[in-house]
Amino acid sequence: MAQQTGFGRRYVRAFVSGFFVAVPVTVTVLDRLAYVARVEGASMQPSLNPEGGTSSDVVLLNRWSVRNYRVQRGDIVSVLSPKNPQQKIIKRVIALEGDLIRTMGYKNRYVKVPDGHFWIEGDHHGHSLDSNSFGPVSLGLVHAKASHIIWPPHRWQRIVPRLPSDRAPLLSLNEDSEEERNE
């Protein structure tokens, strides 16, 4: 009986010490590297949630890839909402700083994206609260980049950055610097 008690104590001690190692490691991974999130709503249809209200996509959000605020046109990113800092929204990057963009319902028909900002839009125009509502977004609000759809299983795929052809910037002043970053 005494031997069983010693075994139980060793088991509990090992569990507790493992727990105190696993929790900080898990928190660090979620804080610095990546986490998963459910995408709700119709603003990113058909790229995300193509079936509408019947199911929601779950995406892997990569925090590491945006650690230096490096995003490119076509990326789907998670940002803190400029309208409600308690809410995260997921949208596509349409234009980067220095780009001239034709807006879709913003107060100005054309906008030059200021330094330190970018222009984001949902894929389902008219059903999205995006830069056409609140203007250019500060790069400091970038939270993560969507890299994969992980749920539902029939939609497992890597998310490839793509820019809708009708939404390309009219003029891009930073084309050379972007090419240098990709080399």
Looking at this protein, list some descriptive labels.
single chain; 183 residues; alpha+beta; eight-stranded antiparallel sheet; two-stranded antiparallel ribbon; 10 strands; 23% helix; elongated; disordered C terminus
The class by helix and strand makeup works out as alpha+beta
| N-end to C-end Cα span | 67 Å
> Radius of gyration, Cα only, in angstroms?
21 Å
How much of the polypeptide forms β-strand, as a percent range?
Answer: 25-35%
Oligomeric state as shown: single chain
Helix content: 10-25%
Q: Count the E strands.
A: 10
Which spans have pLDDT < 50 for at least 5 consecutive residues? 176-183
| Main sheet properties | 8 strands, antiparallel
Q: Choose one word for the global shape.
A: elongated
Order of helices and strands: HEEEEEEEHEEEH
Task: Look at the structure and give the mean pLDDT.
Answer: 84
Number of helices: 3
